[in-house]
Amino acid sequence: MRIIGLLWLAGLVLLAGCSFTSREVSDGGPARPVDVSHIPDAVPREEVRGPAGNKSPYTVMGKTYWVMEDSTGFTQEGVASWYGTKFHGRQTSNGELYSMYGMTAAHKTLPIPSYVRVTNLQNGRQVVVRVNDRGPFLHDRIIDLTYAGASKLGFLKHGTAPVRIEVVEPGQNIGTATPAATTTATAIAQPQPQPTVLASRNEELPAPEYAAGYKLPANTFLQAGAFASPSAAESVRQRIAGLTSLPVFVSAPRKDKLYRVRIGPIADNLALMDIRQQLERNEMPAPHIIYD
Question: What's the whole-number mean pLDDT along residues 189-200?
């Protein structure tokens, strides 16, 4: 589940994580059905695409994939599947935390992040999700959705569904599918069971704080430099501290006797992108992600 850039998220060796293992073994949903109807779809927004999750090309199970340089107008039809408890709380390809109750998805070649409208071609239902992971790599499936996404689209019990995916850009109308997608869905629509919900609204699952997949591990920091001189480290720390409300500190030297300037902990990917952009605008060296 992790294709992560060197010095960003511990390197390409993490390819063997969630998205790159079979999601059909010991996986599933929560012990009892939960109501996810109140969980909002992802809302497309402008995001900087960094190296995390966008290593290209990459090889999985003997097959090589190239991440798209430009996904504008991209559409695709095929089979969707979903993944759940086995990967809940683990890192996705860009280092965010996977939540089976969020509105995210895994795709093999779309840039991370991307936003896509997914239409179930059997019943016409639609969701908008944010791609932050790689996969699926089994049975020629084109997209892996979360438990919440599959529930909204009505294919939890079956496990898979024929879908159409369409890239949605920030500011684009996300309320309806393209005419082609609508026509296809209408032409083959069949009665489908409604998503399972709990009888009591008091028992509905609380919406995730970051339903579109922005949440980062609790020990996520940005490292802005390592210095032999404590005064040099303190000078950089003070400069960065003037650019952000996040904690900025100099860590105690280790065996290498270096003083590291770190920012964090950082809770979500939007805050991380903001501070990286602030440093870039102020012509400071690009920091890298560490977990400590």
Answer: 37
Q: Is it the case that residue 1 has pLDDT exceeding 50?
A: no
CA torsion sign, 1 to 89 to 130 to 148? positive
First to last CA, the chain: 21
Query: Are 23 and 86 within 8 A, CB to CB?
Result: yes
Is 119 within 8 Å of 164 (Cβ atoms)? yes
pTM passes above 0.85: no
Judge contact between 104 and 83, C-beta under 8 A.
no
Domains and CATH numbers, the chain: 12-203 (2.40.40.10), 220-291 (3.30.70.1070)
Report the side by side order of strands in the sheet with 220-227: 248-251, 259-263, 220-227, 288-291
Cis amide prior to 57 (ω within 30 degrees): yes
Nearest to 120 by CA among 82, 77, 83: 77
Residue 263, strand partner residues: 222, 248
Tens-digit pLDDT profile for residues 121-135: 999 999 999 999 999
The token duo for 169 is 């850009």
